[in-house]
Amino acid sequence: MPVPPEVEVLNELLAAEQSAVCHRLLEATVFVSQLSMSEAQFVSRLAAECSQHTAWLADRVLQLGASPSMRRADVRTADLHFMDLHRAWPRLIENHRQLLDGCTLAAGQLASAAQSARLVGRIQARHVKQLEDLQHATAGPSTPARSAR
Predict the structure, then answer these.
(1) Which of 15, 28, 41, 93 has the most CB atoms within 10 Å of its CB?
(2) Smallest Cα–Cα separation from 15: which of 60, 73, 66?
(3) Under CATH, to which class is 5-147 assigned?
(4) Would you list the domain boundaries of the chain?
């Protein structure tokens, strides 16, 4: 039985969310150098929000009567366990840009599926905020983003 296009798009986005770097980052925090309290809270919040995205997408696929695609963590992220958090920031930013691009593409493909489009829009808005927060968190001390605090 063919998979409806709406489900295919949601499952592609689900696969991207499941393999996102943010999921590994929370696991890796015990191995990275000592985090400040604000960094630890930020990483925990980011990972929790990424987990919510996967749950929302899986729930929507189930509501459509289909099976959500399940994917394991990307093995290329295993080195995060041995990396200083500050060296992982660029990778996390790039991954969030990719997730945002995926949401933009999915939103266009789901234009005729209102409920799924709203869900993707909500995830997309979160990724925009997360990306802004990541860029703010990684700004150097002499940049306007840091000095505006």
Answers:
(1) 28
(2) 73
(3) mainly alpha
(4) 5-147
